[in-house]
What we know:
Layout: H1 8-15, E1 21-26, H2 33-39, E2 40-48, E3 70-72, H3 76-79, H4 83-98, E4 108-111, H5 115-123, E5 131-134
Parallel strand pairs: 1-2, 2-3, 4-5
Helix pairs in contact: 1-2
Amino acid sequence: MDYDRTDFAAEVARLTDGRGVAVLYDGVGARIWRGSMQALAMRGSYLCLGQAWGPITDFAFSDLAPKSARATRPSLFHVIADPAELRRRTAALFAAVTQGMLQSEPRQSMPLDQAAQAHADLACRRTTGPTVSIP
C-alpha cells in the first residue's frame, strides 16, 4: 500500500474485517510505525526491519499495551553469525521459492551498468517491488 496516499491502518482494518494483521514487517521506521501498530491484530507482532525514513525515537513499552503486541528489531548479522543456521535458513528459503510458496515477480529491470541509477530510483521511491539488474 502507498502509505503516502492511503490511510494504510484503516485499509488493513477494512481488508481484515477489523481484525488487523498478525505480523507487520516495517522497513520504513519513524514515518509509519504508529500506523503499523494500529494495523496489528490483537497480540500481533511488529518487526522493524529498517529505518528508511529515520529511527523510531518515541517508542515506549506502553505503545504495545492496547493490543498486547510484541515488537522486535532483528538484525541480519545475528541470523548469519552461525554458518550452519545460515545454510539451514537459506535452504528453507530456496525450497519455498522452488515449491511456489514464495513468489516475487520483478517489477522493473535495468542493465547492470545502470546500477547507480537503480539505487537512486530505489532511494527516491521511484520503484516498487524487486528490481533486477541484467548483466
